[in-house]
Fold this protein.
Amino acid sequence: MSTSKILHEANPSAEWWRTAVIYQIYPRSFADGNGDGMGDLIGVTSRLDSLAELGIDAIWFSPFFKSPQKDAGYDISDYRQIDPLFGTNQDFDALIAKAHTLGIKIIVDIVPNHTSDQHAWFQAALTAPEGSPERAYYHFKEGKGKNGELPPNNWFSIFGGPAWTRTTNADGTPGQWYLHLFDSTQPDLNWSNPHVAQEFDDILRFWLAKGVDGFRVDVAHGMVKREGLPDSDSHDATGKEYNISKMAIDEAEKRVPYWGQPGVHDFIRRFRSVVDEFDDRAMCAEASMSPLPRLAMWVRPDEYHQSFNFDYMATPFEPAALKKIVTDSIVEYGKVGASSTWVLSNHDQVRHATRYGYEIEIPKAGDGIGPDYAQPDEAIGLRKARAASAFMLGLPGSSYIYNGEELGLPDHTTLAPEFREDPTFFRTNGERVGRDGCRVPLPWEADATASNGFSATGKSWLPQPANYRVFSRNLQEGVAGSTLELYKRLLKERKAFGMGAGEFRWAEEFEDKNTLAYVNNGVLVLTNFGPEPVVVPAGELLVTTQHDLRLEGELEHDQTVWIKL
Ligand code: NOJ
């Protein structure tokens, strides 16, 4: 018998988000119902049965609100309207009703850090005088230099270039500058203005009253800026960004006056109290905060319910590193009474089936891979991706799946420049190709149309690469060993054994230096990182990533198995 200590006590709870498998839908790319080449809500509704069949608990939608689409919907001009590109508010009502009938919860994306420059608040601010209440919704400032010709501080936009844009006054003279941590079409809101918080209380209530089960909160770590907007000390003399995850918490707070400022917790608690006016709703923070003890402060009992575990996502597929991040996550989240989340892919990162196809270091998250870059080994990428997903989905806590990963989709890594839409591409003159490669429409039925059934007309806002055809859902349906059937099986067993809330310990008695093993509620999950095959312990085989899901004796390299001991 093992002596490894139990890291996670079994804790069945009525709080669904503690264990939920949440499926991220990127509305542009999931399914097109009206044939215009852009995914939409009626497309989603028509495909909901396939998600119920997959076995997920909830869907998180990236934004589908009214937007000029300068950052694929993360630039919102009306928080209460569905963008006509995706349908109508009635389409959303129909979607949520059907999802709830199928037992699927719905989480929507809320973007409180910035609006679109086309939002009525910003348009009013532009025409209002300096120092007016309208301008106080945003960060307007005088420039530096003799004639105000220099930006007010040294902050960079995350998408490249300066974080400030100068306005022009009605008489044509240059005016104040406004802050935008992202694109110049995404002005940052000023959360020290109480009106901004009141507006968001009402926006949250609007969607809660419509029946949404929760929110994913965008750039949750950026909402509050240090008073006076001082220069940041985030980059060294060569322009390279410091790794703040390696710094002490107060040093990181000091160096970067726009990330993770302590004042943000008041607003998190305020969001929480609004959400708590309704039963059973939850929030997940997109807080790019490291290290984990810093992130855990965001999910204390009266703050967010969950926070994405981006450190897990960034961890290489390698046993020692994975063991450490899993242990740290369970321990650190556990200290504040939260459950951990796990995630491997989303709409901002190169998909894990592509990342794992490289032995060399790839561009940093969000910068993407283009045709001029070394291309991945697709077969090894997929093999490792499947093994990594099977490792992740057995862990206690809540897991996020990004649409298409259940098909084993890779990124489009050779997308031509003329198709690019990500502002990162334009703000860096193509030096960083950006995130379009992971946002390509999904293949549903091979050859049904030019976009493999994504759209009845074959149109598709980004072209699928030729290799997407073989990943089409219909070619995987019912096929033993397909990635789709693998995910279905994993989700089924995870539920059957209550692993989301299970008693978890490392099973060191089954490990060597090239494997990792844990036991969760009596299920042994063993991953072989290679290169040699390993003998599998006795027990009932529940599921394996290997070949056609059969296993005779040995587990090959880069494969995972679940066994009931
Ligand atoms: C994070 C979102 O995930 C990303 O897609 C977006 O560009 C930025 N926040 C800005 O809203």
Remarks:
- The first strand starts at residue 6 and ends at 8.
- The chain has two domains: 17-114+194-476, 120-179.
- The chain is about 25% helix and 15% strand.
